[in-house]
Amino acid sequence: MINGTAQSNATSHSSVSSASEGEAVAACGIVTLAANDQVSLFLRNHTAGRNIVVEHASLVIEKLLA
User: Fold this and answer.
1) Distance spanning both ends of the chain, measured CA to CA
2) Residue 54: inside a domain, yes or no?
3) pLDDT digits over 28-65, tens only?
4) Residue 39's beta-bridge partner residues?
5) What is the pTM of this model?
6) What CA–CA distances, in Å, run from 59 to 11, 26, 46?
């Protein structure tokens, strides 16, 4: 997310077959940032019956030179 808005070009989708099964998810995207933009990671659960537990998360930001 940038400033609280989801970025459609930086998404990933995954399905887990059972509640006790772990899943590794990775995604990448290129976004344009301005000074003082706030970047955050978020997860959305599309099924009301399961909770999401995040054990590890990381975010890497690199400047691309044109």
Assistant:
1) 23
2) yes
3) 888 888 999 999 888 777 776 667 777 888 888 888 88
4) 2
5) 0.62
6) 13, 10, 23
Q: Is residue 6 part of a domain?
A: yes
What amino acid occupies position 43?
L
Check the CA dihedral 32-60-35-41 and report its sign: positive
- For residue 9, what are the contacts with CB-CB under 8 A and spacing of at least 6? 29, 30, 31
Residues in the chain: 66
Interatomic CA distance for residues 45 and 48, integer angstroms: 7
Which amino acid is present at 5? T
How many folded domains does the chain comprise? 1
18 domain-assigned:
no
Give 23's contacts (C-beta < 8 A, 6+ positions apart). Answer: 14, 16
